[in-house]
Task: structure prediction
Amino acid sequence: MKESLDKDIIIKELGRSVFSSNFIFHQKINSTNTLAKELALKGEPHGTIILAEEQTAGRGRLNRKWLSQGHENLLFTILLRPPLSADNIFPLTIILAISAIDAINDMTGLNVLIKWPNDLYFKKKKLGGILTEFSLKAGVAEYVILGLGINVNWMPGEGDGLSYPATSLLAESGIRVSRNRLITGILKRFEVSYENVLSGKTDGLHLSWNKLSLVIGKDVEIISPDEVIKGRAIAIDHKGALLLKNALGEEIKILSGDVSLRF
Ligand code: ADP
Result:
């Protein structure tokens, strides 16, 4: 039987967690990130979660669209108010990716990887994406919103209008995953990693995000609005920047910003 998202079940499973204190659920909204931004500006607290069954205007980066079939996938946004400066915010995107990867592995056995900077891939297919948006006040984050979309029980097909091959947990594992359990597993893991980031304990996380990276060792192209940089991906540094070596053997540091990575 198809399972619906159930806010009460999720809150109960989360137990004592900052994420169970202001949990907002909508059947249908324009975009969980758009609502999160509005709520952030109205002063909603750190730890607010916005979860939806369906989005009518799901967004990716650079005004791209995030498509999702209602009632089958996971779409939610975390609103945070971390005491972090701009260059320490990007690791939050990666720890959300790691939290999702670990929760997925626990429930399906699949080994999902991070396509730097913000996508989840299984083999050569896109399984999910993270959209991070933030605002700064006096150099410190006023809010950070992390939106996560995962294809769970949807079978993306050719007519779906996606620019790259996409897949889902059901397509790859044959398992119909409980979305209520999946979001709980992700948020519980994220809460632990978030505390580690705030207290500067990032060595273990840094190892994980290199180990789970799809791009390390590969030749890539980094596409930004004004240039294309080619090189071999060497590592992802402590702040989440991608280190490349170009054809001249020079090391180049790429900040996540609004760049896209192609193989
Ligand atoms: P990119 O991966 O190109 O850097 P984004 O991370 O912003 O871009 O993701 C948006 C892109 O992801 C869209 O252009 C679309 O091709 C693709 N996409 C949208 N929805 C899905 C989905 N549910 N599953 C996989 N890919 C998707």
